[in-house]
Specification:
- The protein has 9 helices and 10 strands.
- By secondary structure, it is an alpha+beta fold.
- The protein has 3 domains: about 210 residues, BirA Bifunctional Protein, domain 2, CATH 3.30.930; about 110 residues; about 60 residues.
- A 6-stranded mixed beta sheet has the order 2-4-5-3-1-8, with helices on both faces. The protein has a two-stranded antiparallel sheet with strand order 6-7. The chain has a two-stranded antiparallel ribbon with strand order 9-10.
- A hairpin with a 6-residue loop joins β4 and β5.
- The C terminus is likely disordered.
Length: about 400
């Protein structure tokens, strides 16, 4: 099963933006931190929206009106409140840019030609402009990386907008990611639309399970709990081993004195060691029970997750099938309407032609009446073949 993947990562500072640019544009000579990058294949990367300068310089070019507005505003600010454009950006609660990443399950690209991968990448860019609503002048840079294990698209956008400022009663520039991706729920809707667009363009991909991050966090926390229990058992198990060894040593050095056939006499410290072994054994037994319960709960969680996953795949498949049928019907409807318009145009032309023949006295008026009668019969379905209309 191949899944469509679309993520959005905020870029918070200009320094972050510069580092992302260095990675996306492959400006480093070596990539020791990322062994997946094969620089011999970097020549196969495709610039979807080129940028012939550094990210920071390109950003300043894109936001020059915003910068000019900020500098004008700083002229009237108190000295202790004045900030450079970059200082304002870095200290702002908003982002300076947003990095959109598009890819799919690795097997999706297996045996796919470069031309088809580029077509997939271009579809991703259609999503950026048509679904997310970014204008071309808001896209700083977009590139298709072919030099890593899985092809993927990096698209860096600057959500620069003009918003009404109630305080100054004017429109002012700002960078607001929320104008394009409001929250996690909206992002989930956009991921639906992304998968739908890809399928419409002929790329068979499944939508990932919604809110899967939440489920993964739950399982991680659960595993963390079981690890803590396991560590606790190990500590108590070591304590038990120590207590048993201590008892064995004392038992060897202790001379047992028989009182009668049903009882023996032991030293107090040996007796205390025996009780210690019993207490530690109880602790281990209790923890083992807790751990067994934890693993049972984990199995239940994973089984439920697996069943839900299978059901989602089934429902998504049914949904995609319905979408395909709907798209086919829309196409057939459009094609039929097109042919009807053509046919109507031909009939109107014939009608005008017959009308002029009658008006010029070249044919009797009965010919026009006969033509109209034939047309009415054709429309009502009494005549099935188009040729019959023009006998």
């Amino acid at each position: 099963m191949n899944y469509a993947i679309f993520r959005s990562e905020p870029v918070n500072t200009m320094n972050d933006l510069a580092q992302i640019g260095s990675h996306n544009k492959r400006e480093k000579k070596v990539y020791k931190s990322n062994p997946d990058i094969d620089l011999n294949k970097t020549k196969d990367n495709v610039e979807l929206v080129p940028l012939n300068m550094k990210y920071t310089k390109g950003f300043y070019e894109l936001t020059k009106d915003y910068r000019k507005e900020h500098e004008e505003r700083m002229k009237t600010e108190r000295t202790d409140r004045q900030k450079t454009f970059r200082q304002m950006l870095d200290k702002s609660k908003s982002v300076v840019a947003d990095e959109l990443m598009f890819t799919a399950t690795h097997t999706f690209f297996k045996d796919m030609s470069k031309e088809e991968i580029v077509r997939w990448a271009q579809t991703c860019m259609v999503f950026v402009t048509e679904k997310l609503g970014y204008k071309e002048n808001q896209i700083l840079h977009a590139t298709l990386h072919m030099d890593e294990k899985t092809p993927h698209v990096h698209c860096v956008v600057v959500p620069l907008v003009k918003k009404f400022d109630k305080r100054t009663n004017t429109e002012r520039y700002t960078i607001s990611k929320k104008q394009y991706i409001r929250d996690k729920e909206h992002l989930s809707e956009l991921q639906d639309q992304y998968c739908e667009l890809l399928n419409t363009m002929g790329f068979a991909l499944e939508r990932g399970i919604k809110h899967s991050d939440r489920e993964h966090i739950d399982i991680k926390e659960f595993k963390k709990l079981t690890r803590a229990l396991a560590n606790e058992i190990k500590v108590d198990d070591d304590t038990l081993d120590k207590a048993i060894k201590e008892l064995e040593i004392k038992m060897k050095s202790n001379k047992v004195v028989m009182f009668d056939k049903d009882s023996v006499k032991v030293r107090k410290d040996t007796f205390d060691s025996m009780n210690k072994v019993i207490d530690e054994s109880k602790k281990v037994k209790d923890l083992k029970s807790k751990l067994d319960t934890a693993y049972l709960n984990l199995k239940t969680v994973t089984d439920n997750y697996s069943n839900m996953h299978k059901e989602n795949i089934k429902l998504d498949k049914e949904n995609n099938d319905l979408k395909y049928k709907y798209n086919d019907l829309k196409y057939n409807e459009s094609y039929l309407n097109y042919n009807i318009k053509r046919l109507k145009s031909v009939i109107d032309g014939m009608s005008d032609f017959v009308y002029h023949l009658v008006a010029d006295g070249l044919v009797p008026s009965s010919v026009e009446d006969e033509f109209n009668d034939e047309f009415e019969e054709f429309i009502s379905g009494k005549k099935k073949r188009e040729d019959d209309l023009f006998v």
